[in-house]
Amino acid sequence: MEQLNSTVVISNISSSPGYPSPASWDFRSLAPAVVLSLSFLLGVPGNIAVIILRPNWQQMSRLSQILMLNLAISDLISLLPLPLWIYTLLCSWTLGLVLCKLLAYLAYCSLYSSQMTVTALSVQRYLKVVYLQRYFHHVGLKKLLALLWLAAMILSIHALVHQQLTPDQNWTRCRTGYSSPAQQEAVLLTQTLMGFLCCFVMAFSYIGLHRKVNQAAFFNNPQTTRLITSIIVSFNVLWMPNNITSALGVAAISLKNEGLLKFYMDSKNTAGALWRLDRVQYKKGYELTQPAVDTA
C-alpha cells in the first residue's frame, strides 16, 4: 500500500472522482484483485466453518483451541473488508480518509496477529511433542492473547499515521505515504524482519519435530508426513513473496535504485495478497495432524 513516490506525501484530498465505468478500470491491479477474490471466497467460509464446526477440536489442548480460534478471528478481520479493497483496487477510493486509515490498520493488525499466532502454534506443538512439556500452559491464556494483540496493534500504528489518499491518474488511492525515505525504510524493515523471523521459527519447529521424533508413530504415517510437509511448504511459498518484496523495497530505498523501486511498487500488491491464501491450508493441516501429534 505504499505510494509510487516515497518522498512525497499528499495528505489532503479535497475531492475524489466519481465511480469510473468498467472501461476505465485500472487493469494494473487485476492480478492482486483476482488473488484477493480467491482469498475471500475460500477464506470467509473456511474460517466461519472453523469457528462454528470446530473440526477435531476435541483432540486439541485448550491452548491449541484458543490459538486456532484467534487465528480464525484474525483472518476474518482482514477477509471481510476484502470486497471494498477489491473494488477500490479496480476503480477509485471513495470511502474517505478515516476508513482508509482504519481498514489499513485492521489489515496490518490481522497480518501481525496471524503471523504470531501461527508461530505460537508451531512452537507449542514442537515443545509438546519433542520435550513432552507444555511451557505455554504456565502463562495465562488471556495474558498470552493480550500480549499478542498488543504487539500486533503497536506494529500496525504506522498505518494510522502514514495512510493517505493520493491521486493516481484518474483515480484516488488509499496508500501509505511517507515524508521521508527513512520512514518507509523503517516500516518495510520491520515487516521484513517479522516475516522472516516467523517463517524461520515455524520451519525450525516443524523440521526439528520431524528429526526428533522420526521413529515415532506420528511420522510412520505417510499421510501425516505429507500434511506436515505441505504446511511448511505452503506457508513459506505463500508468505515468502511478501517477505522478499519487502526486503527488495528496503534495498531499493537504501541503494536509491529507481529500477528496483519500480519493481517493488509493481509487485507488492500481488505479493501482499498471496499470504491470505495460506491460512486455510494451515488450519486444515493443523486440525488433521493434531490427533497424530497427541498420540505420538
TrEMBL record:
The keyword Repeat does not apply. It is found in: Membrane. One of its GO terms (biological process) is positive regulation of cytosolic calcium ion concentration. One of its GO terms (molecular function) is C-C chemokine binding. It holds the Pfam family 7tm_1. One of its GO terms (cellular component) is external side of plasma membrane. Residues 46-248 form the G-protein coupled receptors family 1 profile domain. The keyword Iron does not apply. InterPro entries: CCR1-9-like, GPCR_Rhodpsn, GPCR_Rhodpsn_7TM. The chain crosses the membrane at residues 30-54, 66-90, 102-123, 144-161, 188-209. Keywords: G-protein coupled receptor, Membrane, Receptor, Transducer, Transmembrane, Transmembrane helix. This is G-protein coupled receptors family 1 profile domain-containing protein. It comes from Etheostoma spectabile (orangethroat darter). The lineage of its organism: Eukaryota, Metazoa, Chordata, Craniata, Vertebrata.
